[in-house]
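To make this tangible, we now present a fold written out as C-alpha cells:
***
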Amino acid sequence: MTRLPTELRSHGSPVSEVPLRAFDPDRDFAAMVELITAVNHHDHVDWFPTPENLAVEWARVPTFDPGRDHRVVEVDGRFIAAGGVHWRERAGKVVHDIEVWTHPNVRRQGLGRRLLAWAEARARESVADGSGGPRDLPHVLGGGGQQGDPAGAGFAASAGYAPVRYGFVMRRRLDLPILEAPLPAGLEVRPVRPEDHRAIWAADTEAFRDHWESAVRHEADFVHTFGHPDLDTSLWQVAWDGDEVAGSVMNGIYREENAQVGLDIGWLDHVSVRRPWRGRGLASALIVRSLAILRERGMSVAALGVDAENPTGALGLYERYGFRPHQTWVTYRKPL
C-alpha cells in the first residue's frame, strides 16, 4: 500500500486546507489508480484498474467528462483524495452517482465531505446548464458502499443518503464439480466474430431492460465494452437461434487485478437471456459453459454481481450452480 509522509498521517494536519483541482485526463490516470489501489486494499474492495483500463472507463462521454466532473486533492505529486459525479438515465429518472476516495492515512479530516459537497453541487449545476441529463425527468443523487462498513454507512446517513437496494458479489470455487446443463434444442453457441458485436450488444441491452433501474445505454457504452484493454471475446458464451442472439454470458479475466487480489478470478460480467428464450434452461447452460472455460483458462474462482431482488430469479439460479454471497453492496439515494 502507498505510504504518505508522516506529516500527512497526523491528525489535524493541513491536508484539509489543500485546494481541490480538476482531474487532468492527459496526465492523472496513474496517480488516480495509485489512490484507488490504496483505498480499495484498505476497504477490501476487489476493483483494481490499471491506468489503461481507467482511461477507457473514464473516456469523455455525454454522461461524464472527467476534467469537468471530477476533482482531486494532490500533495507532493500524489493524490490523497478524489471524487466525482456521473449521471445515467434509469427507469424514468436521472441518477447522479457520486464516488469519493480518501486515502486511509488522511481520513476524518473533512476531505470526503468537501468532495461530496463539490460533487453534489456539480450535479445541481449540470441540471441547470443542461449537461446533466433530460430536465423534464426527476433527478436524484446516488452512491454505493459495502454493507457492514460502519464508517461508510455513517458517512452516507449523515449526508442524507438512505439505502434503497442491495446486491451481492458472489463467488464460486472452480475446483468443485460443475453440474451439467445442456443447451436447449435448436440453439447453438458460436465463437464471437467482430461482425457479431452489434447483435450481441443489442440482445444484452434488450434483456437488461427488465432489471432494476437498468441504465439507458449509449453508443459510448458499446465503444467502452469492445474497446476495453482486457476484452477477450473467446471467453464469451453466446447462444444463437438461427440469426438471432438468444442469450449470452460475457466473461472476463483481469490478470493485473487478480495479482492485487491474490486470486485467479474469472468474472461472469453479464448474464442475459432475452424474453422469448427464458424458462428453457438457457441461462443454466451458458453458466455451466462459462465455469468450464474459466477453469480451462486456469482460474480458481468464478465471480459475478447480482441484484438481491432480481426479477428473473437470478440469485437462486446462481446459488444452484454453486455461487455464494461474498460481499453485500448497498445502493443509496438522496433527493437532488
Notes: The two ends are 36 Å apart (CA to CA). The domain at 169-334 is CATH 3.40.630.30 (Aminopeptidase).
